[in-house]
Amino acid sequence: MTIDKQGSGAAKARASAFIMQNALYLVMFMMICVICLIEPTFLKLQNFYFIVTQASSRIIMALGVASIIVLGYTDLSLGRSVGMAAIFASSLLQAVDYSQRIFPKLPQLPIFIPILAVMAICSLFMVVQGLVVSKLKVAPFIASLGFQLVLYGLQSLYIDELNDSSPIGGFDPKYSRFAQGAIEFNNFRLPYLVIYAAIAIAIVWFVWNKTKLGRNMYAIGGNVEAATVSGVNVVANIIIIYAIAGLMYGFGGALEGARTGSVTNMLGSGYELDAIAACVVGGGAVRGGVGTVVGVVTGVLIFQVINYGLVFIGVNPYVQYIVKGMIIILAVAIDSQKYIKRR
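Structure (tokenized):
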């Protein structure tokens, strides 16, 4: 009898642990099932093709902020970094015959020059933010909030002074094709965006799992005091990780500009919350030290499926904000419970 009770108790404990580990996935799976029941055509392969394509640039951005989250920090400036990169890149890559060109005397630039330039600019801003966080000991939330406002002000001034706050369009066809193009064979199209995302995933996976920087990142996120005692140069590693995040924001922003075809100073608004939420949904811990590349990619895809699904069945956009907010709260609540149990 005692053995039966012990076995029953162990089974309940395992079930409870399973639910705790996978509660968010179960909730999201049920949401997707509801969407499919309301509109069965959502299951068409074409819809998932669009979802993966649209998620690709978000994956690149999320992988950037995920490294900062593994450190135990956060970054609210992601969205504005992306917006700034899109504005700068698109303003330099308008077609020479476009009548409303911002820089009419500028020759047609090879697309890689503005893209590399905006990546460098975003990386520089992130290096400064990393210095503020690591050397001046400003809370990452406050530092990123401040940089968010600075970036938004700079990009708004830029677009207001040079383009009277009008959307930037008329892109060089090569720039548009850079994000919207695809490799075609037979009846299958492999979008360039998916290829870029796959390359980013491979690079970040290698850095996280096979390099000293990756090991140091997890060590700092797990216990910064222990990492310091072990000889890890905390400041240098934080700055490098912030710099890499900036490179990914810049590249993601350049892609978003070309993908959307028209850029305003509102592009990127809210991207940071989606990316952070996707990281937490994918198993990242807001207190740092935990996270996987596979988890981040999974989180982004799940969020994209739900976003696309809600639009597909005609849910009011404001209700979508409520759903995403509830998912974020649930994700952080589950993460907090996991942390309490580990302690």
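Residues 72 and 163 are 39 Å apart (CA to CA). The first strand starts at residue 182 and ends at 185.
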